[in-house]
């Protein structure tokens, strides 16, 4: 019986301790939200202000990093889309250059062939 009563007392103590911890956390949360500040001393207010400034600095750093990462991702995406959009234009220019080259090559071979024919017609040989 003694151990059961002792165990019950232990649970009661743990319950009271946890309840006090929860109440303190709720009070701190209210203070961080700017509520229930009247009962706080100057020292407590200064400490709270420092906590809020530190939290705000961390928040801004996180926000800036997140925005920078998002901007970098969007920039990569834009560059990728520009490459894709530029590719057909490059392919078309390459194809036009090839056609132009082939036409020029064809004309050159016709001219060369014509010269050969005229030379062979005019050539009497030895």
Word description of this protein:
The chain is mainly α. It is elongated. One of its GO terms (cellular component) is nucleus.
List the defining traits of the structure above.
single chain; 126 residues; mainly alpha; 2 helices; 0% strand; TF_Kbox; DNA-binding transcription factor activity; K-box domain-containing protein; coiled coil
List the helices and strands and how they pair.
Layout: H1 2-32, H2 42-122
- β content, as a range? under 5%
Low-confidence stretches: none
The secondary-structure element order is HH
- Whole-number average pLDDT? 82
CA-based shape: elongated
* Annotation field: number of helices: 2
Helix content: over 70%
**Count of DSSP strands:** 0
> Could you say which structural class the secondary elements and strand pairing correspond to?
mainly alpha
Q: Whole-Å distance between the termini?
A: 139 Å
- Rg result: 43 Å
The largest pleated sheet is described as: none
What is the structure about, briefly put?
By secondary structure, this protein is mostly helical. The chain has helices spanning 2-32, 42-122.
